[in-house]
Specification:
Distance between the termini: 66 Å
Helix content: 10-25%
Low-confidence stretches: 1-14
Strand order of the largest sheet: 1-2-3-4
Strand content: 35-45%
Length: 242
């Protein structure tokens, strides 16, 4: 009986060891990520931040209510672009957009500036004329093989080349409606634009979301129940409305 108990105990311990070993072998490795809190006390220009993006070299850019900053992992740097003899003192929110070639577009007021992270240089790619109330007059939406799809004040939906040359204008929306979206507070405060491989989604208010197929160049509307401003995001197969 004593021998049987010892054999049973040995078998039990062996099974536990094999189970633990198997679990460790199949366990998903976890990685501890460093967390930094960025706020006014740590150098952020303003705690109201509307866009955050990471450039091709891994630096994080933050658009705040009163200016543009870049975080290198240790400290925040206030960005004042210089193009030739022109200095752009940005004291307002900007719209940030990464291109597939590694360049970044910075949209504000009457300009889109291109930032080259490899050379740490800026250049003017598009010059527009914004109304007095608009935070920015042009908003990049999505880049396809055809070009960079943008929503532009007074023009509606337009397509630019990465060099900043206009390729095509398409009136999916009445320009009065796109102007209202560009000038609206939700564009500054919420993510009302999202895209996946084939579609661009824009919440335009009045219970409707504009759905643009960038492959067929056709557009339609999705009706939603909320009368409040929505935030949008999507995967390849689903659109999520918050």
């Amino acid at each position: 009986m004593k021998l049987n108990c010892q054999i049973w105990l040995l078998t039990f311990l062996l099974n536990i060891s094999l189970t633990v070993y198997g679990q460790n072998q199949n366990a998903i490795p976890l990685k501890r990520c460093p967390i930094s809190t960025l706020n006014y006390e740590t150098g952020l220009l303003n705690n109201t931040t509307n866009y955050i993006i990471t450039d091709a070299l891994g630096f994080t850019w933050l658009s705040t209510k009163i200016g543009l900053q870049r975080f290198n992992g240790n400290q925040l740097e206030t960005i004042t672009p210089v193009v030739g003899k022109d200095t752009f003192n940005i004291m307002e929110p900007v719209y940030l957009f990464n291109l597939k070639n590694g360049m970044m577009w910075i949209s504000f007021r009457n300009y889109i500036l291109e930032f080259n992270p490899f050379l740490n240089t800026f250049r003017i790619v598009i010059t527009t004329k914004a109304s007095g109330n608009s935070g920015f007059s042009i908003v990049p939406l999505k880049e396809t093989s055809e070009g960079v799809w943008c929503m532009q004040e007074k023009k509606g939906i337009v397509i630019y080349s990465p060099k900043g040359k206009i390729i095509r204008e398409t009136s999916f929306y009445d320009t009065d409606i796109t102007d209202r979206i560009i000038q609206s507070d939700p564009l500054l405060l919420k993510n009302i634009i999202s895209s996946n491989r084939d579609y661009i989604f824009i919440y335009g208010g009045n219970y409707q979301i504009l759905k643009i197929n960038t492959q067929t160049n056709k557009a339609g509307f999705i009706n939603c129940e909320s009368s409040f401003s929505l935030s949008l995001t999507c995967t390849e197969n689903h659109l999520f409305m918050v």
